[in-house]
């Protein structure tokens, strides 16, 4: 996919763990915000808005590609 998602897994002790690839500072930051947003309503609202805006931008780009690729 165009947007990398953090990989989530569970440790041997049952504690959730998340990893992001080397060089993915933006994804690491977004993951940190998502973790903090679980207990901070303001961050949760900001993250939901960010994701919605990102979706709108991606949908617009996809529509542009589809429009220009039609015969």
Structural write-up:
The chain has 71 residues and is mostly helical. Helix content is 59%, strand content 11%. It is built from two helices and two strands. The protein has helices spanning 25-37, 41-69; strands at residues 7-10, 16-19. A two-stranded antiparallel sheet has the order 1-2. A hairpin with a 5-residue loop joins strand 1 (7-10) and strand 2. Helix 1 (25-37) crosses helix 2. The longest helix has 29 residues, at 41-69. The radius of gyration is 16 Å and the shape is elongated. The two termini are 25 Å apart. The model has no long low-confidence stretch (mean pLDDT 83).
A few lines on this structure:
This protein is mainly alpha-helical and 71 residues long.
- Coarse morphology: elongated
User: Which value, in Å, is the CA radius of gyration?
Assistant: 16 Å
Report helical residue fraction.
Answer: 55-70%
Count of distinct strands: 2
Structural class of the secondary elements?
mainly alpha
Strand order of the largest sheet: 1-2
* Proportion of strand residues: 5-15%
Taking pLDDT < 50 over at least 5 consecutive residues as the criterion, the unreliable ranges are none
How far is it from the N-terminal to the C-terminal residue, by CA?
25 Å
Order of helices and strands: EEHH
* Number of helices, counting only DSSP H or I runs of 4 residues or more: 2
Biggest sheet descriptor? 2 strands, antiparallel
Provide mean pLDDT, rounded: 83
